[in-house]
Amino acid sequence: MFNKRTTYLALLAAALGGANAHLAAWHEGMYCLNGNTGNQDLNSYDIVTPLYQLPFRDWWFHHVNRCDEFPPAEGKYIDLPAGGSFKIEIASNRAKTELSYGGRDTSEWPDGQSYPQDYHDAGCITSPNMHAQDQSRAAGTAFAISYHSDLKDVTPENLVVFSVRYNTPWKRIIYYDVPSALPACPPDGCTCAWGWVPNGCGQPNMYHQAFKCRVSNAKSNVPVKVPAQAPRWCEGNEGGCVGGSKQMIYWNQKEGNNVVVDGRDRRGDFKSPGYNMGMGFRDGAQNDIFGGSPTQGSSSSTSKTTSTTKPTSTQGAKVNNAPTSTSTGSSSPSSSGSSSSSSGDKSTGNSLTGSSSSSSSPAETPKAFSEKAQRPQSCQRKRRRAAAEKREEARREEVKREDLVKREEVKREEVRREEVKRAIGGHHAVHAKRSF
Predict the structure, then answer these.
(1) Boundaries of every domain in the chain
(2) Whole-number Å distance between alpha carbons of 332 and 290
């Protein structure tokens, strides 16, 4: 016999989108493939836990349940063929992928079940939990790359989005395009990340997980430009979008957010940043992310390469026939005069100082220090004061962003409460009719 409290809790869970069958990206090169126990688990699902209102250290690469502490098996990577594409599975747990039981429990869909091709729900599709009413409302997902082999060295600034797939997650299998100019990784590989920020329709959480990856068929030695910039909401104003290399979207966390939105979008919904043109991300390979001096020890060729044949995607023509740029995104070496170093991923290629320390002879070093020592103290004080003012301004901006995020969350909470009230009211009305 259900009492009022049981009924209320059930309705509350339904109204908020539930807590089961969330989704993640699966590949043998992923962290947390077997969960966080250290033992083989063909039915693992620790990585699918959504990230919401967490401190940076907890949401960054899913540290909240220690998923970042369980790297893939030795020699397992995502292979990124420059100019080609790679396959990823989206699923509610490992058992619903080809990585368990020989794919026995898989289907076209992320939870192993069957649904109509025009699957839709005016409220919100919760099985599987795609946080969307239909495919057109799926927010988009993305892969990013950092040219650091050690996960501890990866930061939001050196983790650059290189591939986006519109209207995902939807079906289980997704193919992501790789820029033809993507350079080779270090000997121990690169670190990649998958991200998804749902478009409302339930708790406005975030997904962020780590992979080992490496680039094959690399022909260019122009590095991915870092530090990457934070993306910016620019719906309907392409000129206001952030161009070039962009960070992933980090949103609705206690700290570390790099995106602030307020108000409603064109559809009348609360703004929700996603991997789409609303945030300046084009579908497919991101070909504008390169810049700086060519790295040493790489191929000297920077010519365009021919893309490998892309497998037919299960995402539908609307997704895979979207036009993608053919530009390699390569830029000429920096005019700063600095020679390339072995750590090319740290080169920004846009230094305002015009430093040429790497090409200076040892005899020039004392001169540089001597000139610095002879600078008037008043100038040094001015520079320190200006730097302090800049830090204070940045701090105030961060406080403003956090305040906007909190206000937006209050608005969302009010909307959710109204939905719960309506759901409960409707339930009582039906129950009253059935009692007589």
Answers:
(1) 19-335, 361-436
(2) 10
